[in-house]
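Project standup — Tuesday

K.O.: blocked on the structure for the chain from last sprint. Re-posting the sequence here as requested.
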Amino acid sequence: MAQEQGLDLVEISPNADPPVCKVVDYSKFKYEQKKKQKEIKAKTVKVVIKEIRFGPNTDDHDFNFKLKHAITFLQEGAKVKATVFFPGRSIVYKERGEILLLKFAQLLEEYGKVEQMPRLEGKRMSIMLMAKAKK
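H.V.: unblocked you, prediction finished:
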């Protein structure tokens, strides 16, 4: 039948019983499949993670400056990872770093929600914030 019409016989589902075949123009079939794959790829959301770094002794002005940056990142829909880095022996002030991160999360409460609470990994403590859904 396919040869009579000048088309190709394409096996759609080889695992079915009996196998499913279709009489179509193969090049057109490949083109449509490629188009569908491209459409699916375009619809996927790419997650962007922006990192903001603090020290355990970050001053109020620097804190507010970085807070404004975090607000813009969250409004753009990106995730924010705030990190306190403890250089040298400043690791003894880890509770100061945790307080700083919790204060940071509290001030960003209306723009995003906490995805991961403060966690110490080696000499750095970090918290992850996710943007709230747009209304």
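K.O.: great, moving the ticket to review. The two ends are 55 Å apart (CA to CA). Residues 118 and 127 are 5 Å apart (CA to CA).
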